[in-house]
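User: Can you predict the 3D structure of Meiotic nuclear division protein 1 homolog? Sequence below.
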Amino acid sequence: MKELEKLATGVGIVLQSVKDVVNELVGDGIILTDKVGASNIYWALPSEQKKAQERLLTSLREEEARLRDELESMSVKLDEARKSAGDATYKANLDKMLTLQQETEELDKSLAAFRSNDPRAIQQKRQEIDMAKHAAERWTDNIITARRWMSREQGAPLEEINRHFEIPPELDEE
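Assistant: Sure. Here are the predicted structure tokens for Meiotic nuclear division protein 1 homolog:
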């Protein structure tokens, strides 16, 4: 380590970073270390790295084989489940869905029949009728007021104003 630190300081590398990198390489298993007396010896053999890679490759292949077997087993179970559930379940669910759709349509029809007797709907219709009645009265008053003004200011007879603006004769003043 002392030799490596001397070489690093000669190139301009900080001592602490050399120690950190070496400790990280030891932790990753790329560099091996042994303590001999008071000093630590670090080394890396190409054969050790190759052995580590071979061990990793072997474990990955074993994992792949295990996963392939599990996938095959699950595929067989899935096929069996599909065959056993098969058409009977599908047809039963389809029949149930069609029955429920027919019930829904019948209930919608009966609900529509009851809407004409709904107190809220009747109340809303009454409010709409009152609003329309008030609007008609307001416009009738406006027409009568405008007709009076024209008759008074322009001196035109009411019959002529009614004929000119197509005001019906039943719209008499009260």
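The radius of gyration is 49 Å. Residues 7 and 152 are 118 Å apart (CA to CA).
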